Fold these 3 entries.
Entry 1:
Amino acid sequence: MTIAAHAIGFDVQRLRRDFPILHRTVRGRKLVYLDNAATTQKPQAVIDRIVRYYTEENSNVHRGVHFLSEIATAAYEGARTTVKRFINARSEKEIVFTRGTTEAINLVTSSWGGRNVAAGDCVLITAIEHHSNIVPWQLLCEAKGAQLLVAPVADNGELIQDEYRKLLERHPKIVAFGHASNALGTINPVKAMTQAAHDAGAVVLIDGAQGVPHSIVDVQDIGCDFYAFSGHKVYGPTGIGALYGREALLEAMPPYQGGGDMILSVSFEKTTYNALPYKFEAGTPNIEGVVGLAAALDYVGGVGIENITAHEQELLHYATERLQELDGVRLIGIAREKASVISFTLEGVHPHDIGTILDQEGIAIRTGHHCAQPLMMRFNVPATGRASFGMYNTKDEADALVAGLQRVIEVFG
Ligand SMILES: Cc1ncc(COP(=O)(O)O)c(C=O)c1O
């Protein structure tokens, strides 16, 4: 990935003013929030949009002819158009709102997998997946008597593409991989991997939880069949996300859950299902989440995702160099293409202790297995410390992290 020295018109200090939480203190210290891969903070525009929804627009969607219901429905469906444009889907019918990436993947394993995977089939995932892109496939394979294949990862944190291609020769029914790893930062060559999987006759699902926040996502250009992401990783609310699915595939899939809104007509003899995408949205949806998500994507679009990528890449390279100056630091995951995530261990110190000491300084990083236990086993570590940078982080904050780690070394030295 190329690094623009300074993105034109990108002013991080001005941007920080849009995020109220960044100005609070934590344990008497200035907050340094470096846990963006877990969840991002929300700009005032998102907070205001949710308040406006409840203050002026709240009503159930798709059901009433009254004024508020029309407004709420227009906002909800307008948000679908925003998501469609953001990831360049062909049509709103291809955008299903879900609780997040996890539910989107479960929708596919349950509905598509339930219909298309049978005993003796295989499903291919990779060694760098989040548990959300492992366990649903395990459940499916167990239920069907199918086999789960796992493409291995090299010592630098990149997938071994030759091995991936060898496993494709086993003709998996579906291949599922992350756009970027939350635990290592590795960005996968998603377009080439999709093409190779299609050439082998497989359907492709991409876990985009860490793709959408850090890079331009064009599902048509990538060519994938399904793409899942979460609002809260991209400066939007929690509990909302979306599944993109190619229309022909979604059309042929049975409903995921039954209930209101997903039907055309119900009788005890036979129920007929609603058109796409409503067939997959049973029950009253998370309307506040949907309008908040659209506000977040509008905000990100306003800042410019290419500006965000350039800024985060600059921070990633700066922080990586500075961390390497410290004695005993081992970086886990040094792929050539990385999102702004740095996983590390410190010799002789448990990651949990690193996190606790940094917390005393107001610095929030994540420590643990990052919902990627098989990956931790692969690298022979029980856990890592993980600093992950978002659009509002600064080099000063990277310096604060390094200074905090120096103190950890002093304490344990
Ligand atoms: C790569 C990846 N996949 C899936 C998920 C699950 O996302 P959610 O909990 O929002 O469903 C996460 C969250 O950490 C993630 O980083």
Note: The radius of gyration is 22 Å.
Entry 2:
Amino acid sequence: MPDWELVCGLEVHAHLKTRTKMFCRCELEYGGAENTHTCPVCLAHPGALPVPNARAIELTILLGLALDCEIAKRAIFARKNYFYPDLPKGYQISQYEAPLCGPGRFLLPTEDGDREIGIVRAHLEEDAAKTVHAGGATGRSVGADYSLVDFNRGGTPLLEIVSAPDLRSADEAMSYLRLLRQTIRELDVSDADMEKGTLRADVNVSVRRAGEEGFRPRWEIKNMNSFRYIGRAIEAAFRQQVEAHESGEEVAQSTYDYDPDTDRLTVHRSKEEADDYRYFPEPDLVPVEPSAELVERLRGQVPEQPADRIRRLTEELGFAAADELVSTGNESKAEALAAEGLDWKTAAAVAMNRGDFLPENASVLARIVEANVTREALDEAFTAAAEGPIEADAYLSRTAVGDEDTLAPVIDAVIAANPEQVETYRGGKEGVLGFFVGAVMRETEGKADPKVVNQLLREKLKG
Ligand SMILES: [Zn+2]
């Protein structure tokens, strides 16, 4: 399918890190007992009136500034009308025609320089409550015995960041999402944790012929909360749409569900039931008019962006490693080790492969890594380093066996015992090297120096 191009945009939703809800003073608590954080406002009792959360407005502007957005002089809350049991008002308060943050852009670093991803808008709304379907096999409403609603989440401030349809591959969409998540986290705007549900994404996918202007109908995949499935869903949507276009089938604009078991998308909501939310300005709230002073004060709080640091670290590490290190939030660990004298490449590799450690242990850990201790000793050191202060002496004495004369016979034996894998390796599948390294490490009870083992194996396997 070389002449088809993917057209993808993401709508990213993040729970804001405020102490209280968007329009009432109920406290936000992840994992709190059901229906313990509610009040007349978030339960929609008659006559209860919303009061906007000033901190949520500030956090939204802060993120907007980081995304180079125009900040509205006058933003308007709007009612988005629809019925659902977890939405007791019968409408959600959102922003429609006048969002807080207007057009902006996100410069995504790539192997070949920056790609500009347009930001259409970033607006503020409230989340719905959470419905739990019980008794069914699938956890969905169909087939469930009964459903329960937990109103703790109802009214949580929710930031929605809408990108332009500028993403051209599943990989690019994932890098954008990863880096946007890191940007959100560093601004302390949200935990942005998919597992906890504080970060979700709607994915819009269409395809077109290379060079074609304009857009074909798109599929929307709503409420995705797994990075892996987002990537797979985008690829599946691309394949299915190209197949449909090529066989002359109609591709209608609809909402789709992704099924990881079949790796296919199925229609969730058809065109005939298309959304009609009858938006209108929320009569219970005045427009939000952020002062120039507030916007300037917040602009001063935007730190150096992770994208900038990827560009800088690319010189030390190459793009792929710099991108991975920064986007996964492991950079500060690497920085701590590099500050203690480890070269950046080693520091980055250690930071990516090891868990968190207490900052006070960075200096001892750097020494242990350089001393070439056994893998076992290294594992123990890093496990202990997350708990409390560690002593270097306990680990430094346990150096790895890097002596070629000792390792050569072990390696020869492993090679002799696995002729099939040797053939596979010589056939061009270099990934099999890991199998041999693993075998040698087992034979030496983890005491061999993996660097030397790797090097010797490569030499001997050349044949
Ligand atoms: Zn409340």
Note: The longest strand covers residues 113-126.
Entry 3:
Amino acid sequence: MEQISWTDDLRTGNALIDGDHRKLVGLVNALCAAMAQAPANDGMSAAMNDLIVYSKEHFGREETEMKRIQYVASLAHASEHAKLIKQAVELKSMLDAGGMINVVAVSGFLCEWLRHHILTADKKLAIALKNPTPRG
Ligand SMILES: [Fe+2]
């Protein structure tokens, strides 16, 4: 089962965002560990729920910061957040309904999504937060 490591390349340099991301990495790994126990999936739904709850909080903090600096890419960035939440909620619904999910594909998807989102969207946001463009 895929896991994600907290490596230096994932640091954005923004303490608030990096702290949240470390916790997100832990939650994704906890979910992947629970998925490794499939099909005994009691722990999977709870771990998915923890990830959804914390992701919403974290995405909310990033989106508040985007609003504060009137970030130009805020709509595209927030839409990546919304899509991830939607997919995670759908997966949790499937689990809660007793459905089967492809745990290898889901763990790969979540690890890749998080790495890609941090390395692209979040790093750009951290740069903008450091150097907000003055607006008249
Ligand atoms: Fe983000």
Note: The pocket of fe (ii) ion is lined by residues 62, 77, 81, 117, 121-122 (CB under 6 Å).
